[in-house]
Amino acid sequence: MVDIAKRRFFTRKKIDTSQVKLPWVNNLQQFTDLCTRCGKCEEACETRIIQKGDGGYPSVDFTIDECTFCYKCAEICPEPIFNSADTEPWSAKAGISDTCLANNNVECRSCGDSCETMAITFKLRAGGVALPQLELADCNGCGACVSTCPTSSISVSNV
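The structure assignment produced for this chain is given below.
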């Protein structure tokens, strides 16, 4: 059993709870207690976004690709870590930083083109390029917009 508070004490490093771990895993303490770091979820991931993270625990890397919510990671896991497939996978949402090309008057719509839920739209403005508008209610946190952004201006984190 890993006590996160003790781990943080010895490493002097804060545990980043905003980082997206895995879909359908809401309880970080239960996750660290029960996950054996066997790697089966990494092998089962159809987009290969599940990678070994901090302490060897699996985490999601959206710079590789997006989460398709296939539920294969949960199905293959031998431990009772995951919630059922009919629940919300996570509370993660995308965020766009000021380094976005559109904020610097450069036309780019790669994030909007990759957003299946159309949570990212573009608002026209006079004398400049259209700016991205993120509708958080429509964002499912899949991360499709992250890997397509040429300036790494988009991140997905728990809200």
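Interim note for the steering committee: The CA atoms of residues 101 and 108 lie 6 Å apart. Residues 4-11 form the longest helix (8 residues).
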